[in-house]
Amino acid sequence: MSDVKKKRVSAAEFVTVWQNAETMTDVCESLEMKAGTAQVRASTYRKKGVNLKKFPKGGKSFDVNALNELIADIEDPSPTAYEQAVDVADEEAA
Fold first, then answer.
1. What pLDDT shows up at residue 71?
2. Which of 15, 65, 72, 76 is most buried, with most CB under 10 Å away?
3. Nearest Cα to 37, choosing from 21, 56, 51, 18?
4. Where are the domains of the chain?
5. What is the dihedral of CA 11, 45, 48, 8, to 10 degrees?
6. For 1-94, where are the alpha helices, taking DSSP H only?
7. Judging by beta carbons within 10 Å of its beta carbon (0-12, 13-18, 19+), is residue 18 exposed, middle or buried?
8. Distance, CA of 43 to chain centre
9. pLDDT tens per residue, the chain (94 residues)?
């Protein structure tokens, strides 16, 4: 076990910080709490009827089509445009 004592945060302090924060990072920094811990605690409070706000999802976006193409390439590898160009250049050089 760690010798570091965790800061105890009351329900009132948690709710006050949560409702005044702009982001999950703000909550975690203010309460010296890991994001997962804060999320679980907020979820638990919501399930018990506490009307905590939800932070907007701020995850990185991704290109679904590009990822599906990548999966298709992994499952059925075929020469890429680069590999085809190298092959053509090799043939021309020969």
1. 87
2. 15
3. 18
4. 11-47, 64-93
5. -40
6. 11-20, 24-31, 35-47, 64-75, 81-93
7. buried
8. 17
9. 455 567 789 999 999 999 999 989 999 999 999 999 999 999 999 999 999 999 877 666 778 888 888 888 888 776 665 566 666 666 666 6
What is the C-alpha to C-alpha distance for residues 84 and 86, in angstroms, rounded to an integer? 5
How confident is the model at residue 66, as a pLDDT?
87
Q: Are 45 and 15 in contact (CB under 8 A)?
A: yes
Q: Residue 59 corresponds to which tokens in the numbers above?
A: 């995850």
Instruction: Kindly compute the dihedral angle of the four CA atoms of residues 56, 61, 65, 67, in this order, to the nearest 10 degrees.
Output: -120
From residue 4, give the alpha-carbon distance in Å to each of 1, 7, 16, 54: 9, 9, 25, 30
**pTM exceeds 0.70, yes or no:** no
* The token pair that represents 38 in the structure block: 């804060």
Residues in the chain: 94
